[in-house]
Amino acid sequence: FMAVLRPAGDFDTSYTHDMAVLRQRWHWVVMFLLLGVMFALPYFAPEPMVSLFNRIGIAIIAVQGLNILTGYTGQISLGQAAFMTVGGYVSALLVGVAGWSFFLALPAAGLGAGLVGLLFGLPSLRVKGFYLVMATLSAQFIIPWLARNTFPGLLGGAQGINVPVPTLSLPVIAGTCFLGTQYNAELGNCVYRFATPKEFWHITLVVLIVSTVVALNISRSRFGRALISVRDNDLAAELLGVNLFAYKLRAFFIAAVYAGVAGSLLAHNLRHINSQTVGLVDSILFMGMLVVGGLGSNLGPILGATLVTLLEELATVLTPVVMALLPTSAAGITAALRPLIFGLALMLFLIFEPRGLAYRWTLIKASWRLRPYAR
Question: Model pTM?
Answer without folding.
Answer: 0.92
